[in-house]
Amino acid sequence: MKKPIIIFGSARSNGNTFEAIKVVTSKVDSTVIDLANYKIGDYDYNHQNKADDFSFIIEQVLKHETIILATPVYWYTMSAIMKRFVDRLTDLLELEKYPKEVLRNKNLAIISSYGAPEGKNGFEEIFINTARYLGMNYLGCYFHYSGDDLEIRALNAGLADNFIGNLVPG
């Protein structure tokens, strides 16, 4: 599908990251999956977690050309629920159910909310490296500031427009 899929992973389904998602989805038709509504087990070397919801979610993801991971910045990295999902991408590399390199040439982008200006330092590198490892095209990150500095907050709309421009060529 041409429209992106947004995998949303936060401890609060109606928090600041959801507000950032709404900014993007108001301009780009997208499918949103909230990981809080699903049970996803930790990565397991023996793959004893096959009965959880990861397979259902990944089947939805694989229908889309552009995958957006949406997570707040927690301690300079992604949320725990998003980390669990990203860890489970290893299943795509190990299980015969999926063709090798199933994500190759798909697009990866990030939506993130943060409250402390220094909080986003280094955050994006994890996703850039993940995209590179999986052979995906990295499209960038929309950092949505949710802190108290009104000058920084005023930049959100322009940053969102730039991000959306990367998602929708032309």
Report strand order across the widest sheet: 2-1-3-4-5
Shape: globular
**Domain unit count:** 1
Computed Rg: 16 Å
Mean pLDDT, rounded to whole units?
94
The top level CATH class name: Alpha Beta
Annotated CATH architecture:
3-Layer(aba) Sandwich
Which consecutive residue ranges, at least 5 long each, have pLDDT under 50? none
Largest pleated sheet? 5 strands, parallel
Structural classification: alpha/beta
How many individual β-strands?
5
Q: What share of the residues lie within helices?
A: 25-40%
Written account of the structure:
With 170 residues, the chain is an alpha/beta fold. The chain has a single domain (5-156), classed as Rossmann fold, CATH 3.40.50. The chain has helices at residues 16-25, 54-61, 80-88, 90-94, 123-134, 150-153, 156-167, and strands at 5-8, 31-34, 66-72, 107-114, 137-145. The longest helix has 12 residues, at 123-134. The model has no long low-confidence stretch (mean pLDDT 94).
